[in-house]
Structures are given as C-alpha cells and as structure tokens.
C-alpha cells in the first residue's frame, strides 16, 4: 500500500484539516467558541482560519486501520483499554493544514495486574507535522492490555 | 490573539453540565471522530461483553472536557491537555465538566497556569486530567 515503516513506527496517518470536520467535531464535543465554526470570528481572534478543537486529532481515526495497528503490536483487541492520553500543542491546528502523524512505541512493559494475571502497558507517541515539516501537536497515549481472565 | 484569562491559584471557573447523554450524542461523536466500535452503538453486541449497556467512547468525554477548557481559556492559550480514563459513561449519564487552577508560574515572561480537571458522571469521576494554559499576569 505504501512504503514500509521504519523500526519502532507502528503507523503513519496523513490528513487534511477541514472546516466542515472541525464544525462536526465541535458540535459533537459541545464546544461553543465561535472561532471553530465561523471563519470571520476566527480571523477577528487572530487565526488564519478556523482552529481545530483541542482533541481534533481523534479524527485521524477515520483514516486509520485500528485492527492492523493492534495486530502489529500483537495486542488482543478485546482486552485493550486506553489508560491515558496527553496532547501537547506547539501551535493551533487550523483548517487548511495538511498533517502527517507518525506513531512510535516509546515503552512496552509487563506488569502484575491488581487482580492477578499480567498486564501489558504500551506507551505510544505521535508527532503531527505540517506541510513544511514543522511539529504542530504531539500526542502521548498509554494502552493497557488486561491479563486474561482465569 | 485574544487576551488570556485572569485567574488566581485556587480559582475554579464556572462548570458546564452536558447530558443526559443520549445514543444520538454517541452516534454523532462516532461520525465526527470515526470510532465505529459496536460497543458504542450496538446493544446486541454489548450484551456479549459484560458491560451493562452501550458506553460512550472515552474520547467523547475527553473531547467534551477539552471543549469546556478551550471555551473557558481560548484554544490558542492551551499548551497541553491530558486525560486519564477512570470509569465508563453510560446512556443517561449527566456530565459535569470543570477544573481548578493549582499553580501559576512565570516562564520567559509568560504566565502559565496548571489546572486539575475532572469530568464527573452520575456516580463520580469518569475522566480526570490536567492542562497547561497561558493566563494573564497577575
């Protein structure tokens, strides 16, 4: 489909940040600031176009093959939960941006679960860069694979 | 750029109440975000999983909490936003979103506040989190 990924990279996602999708995501998260939905309000506030909401990178879910990603890590999808997610903003993501996110494994450990059994904790980091290669937003995720029930 | 908010340590800006969460809210978020795991919309599938009913995707309540944060402080002033998923959100839950300023530090002439955040459902916290936000100098 595309070039093979370098070692440690689990997937790469590419997408265009669109006004319509920002509007849709803004409504779905009960966000009310008009800068997200009204380009004139956005410009008045100093943005070059409508800024995306803080967790807009979730939209990359549309472009991703989650099953292939989970399979590539050797995780059992039914036992995987997301423990935590942190976004770091280097500048606001804005309508018209074309971004590429590269997701890497930064930690992968086994731990004793509270209720017995071993759980696996995988830490991932995704850096989104814009069309000129400048970082825009960084995402850290911790996935937990619970131990099998006995 | 808009003027940053003026806050002090200990301040807790007005909370927001969202809900009761409906299946439509969850489907709307699925459409916006692209998460079509049947756990979030298919009661027949949910019955095989051990959950008491359809649950919202964690990213929905994370996004709703983020919306409260950016509506309160301005999206351009938020430097980081982090969440931890504590408990599932079920249909009919009402969410209360809010946070408290815990520290304010001056870095390179900029005032940066850290906030403790929480989204609570009917039975307690569902998401806890923290954020770093540019605020007006005291």
What multimeric state do the chains show? heterodimer
- What is the strand tally of chain B? 5
What is the residue-mean pLDDT of chain B, rounded to a whole number? 95
Give the name of the CATH architecture of chain A: Roll
> In the CATH hierarchy, what is the class of the domain at 16-20 and 57-134 in chain B?
Alpha Beta
By DSSP, the count of extended strands of chain A is 5
- The fourth-level CATH homologous superfamily of the domain at 16-20 and 57-134 in chain B is Hotdog Thioesterase
Q: Using the alpha-carbon principal axes, give the shape of chain A.
A: elongated
> What is the CATH T-level topology of the domain at 16-20 and 57-134 in chain B?
Thiol Ester Dehydrase, Chain A
Compressed to H and E, one letter per element, the order of chain B equals EHHHEEEE
User: How much beta of chain A, percentage-wise?
Assistant: 35-45%
CATH class of chain A: Alpha Beta
- The CATH topology of chain A is given as Thiol Ester Dehydrase, Chain A
Most extensive chain-chain interface: A-B, 38 and 34 residues
Distance between the termini of chain B: 19 Å
Main β-sheet, spatial strand arrangement of chain B:
1-3-4-5-2
């Amino acid at each position: 489909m595309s070039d093979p990924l370098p070692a440690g990279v689990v997937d790469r996602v590419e997408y265009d940040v669109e006004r319509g999708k920002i509007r849709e995501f803004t409504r779905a998260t009960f966000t009310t600031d008009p800068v997200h939905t009204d380009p004139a309000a956005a410009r008045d506030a100093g943005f070059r176009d409508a800024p995306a909401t803080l967790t807009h990178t979730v939209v990359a879910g549309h472009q991703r093959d989650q099953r292939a990603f989970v399979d590539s890590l050797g995780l059992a999808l039914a036992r995987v939960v997301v423990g935590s997610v942190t976004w770091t903003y280097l500048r606001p993501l804005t309508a018209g941006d074309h971004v590429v996110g590269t997701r890497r494994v930064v930690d992968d450990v086994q731990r004793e679960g509270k209720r017995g059994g071993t759980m696996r904790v995988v830490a991932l980091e995704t850096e989104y860069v814009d069309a000129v290669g400048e970082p825009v937003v960084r995402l850290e995720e911790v996935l937990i694979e619970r131990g099998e029930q006995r | 750029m808009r003027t940053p908010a003026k806050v002090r340590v200990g301040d807790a800006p007005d909370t927001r109440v969202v809900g009761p969460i409906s299946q439509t809210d969850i489907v709307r978020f699925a459409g916006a975000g692209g998460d079509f795991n049947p756990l979030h919309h298919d009661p027949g599938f949910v019955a095989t999983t051990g959950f008491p009913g359809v649950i919202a995707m964690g990213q929905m309540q994370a996004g709703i909490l983020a919306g409260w944060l950016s509506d309160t402080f301005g999206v351009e002033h938020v430097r980081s936003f982090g969440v931890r998923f504590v408990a599932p959100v079920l249909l009919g839950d009402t969410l209360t979103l809010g946070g408290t300023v815990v520290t304010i530090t001056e870095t390179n002439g900029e005032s940066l506040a850290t906030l403790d955040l929480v989204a609570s459902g009917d039975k307690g916290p569902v998401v806890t989190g923290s954020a770093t936000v540019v605020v007006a100098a005291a």
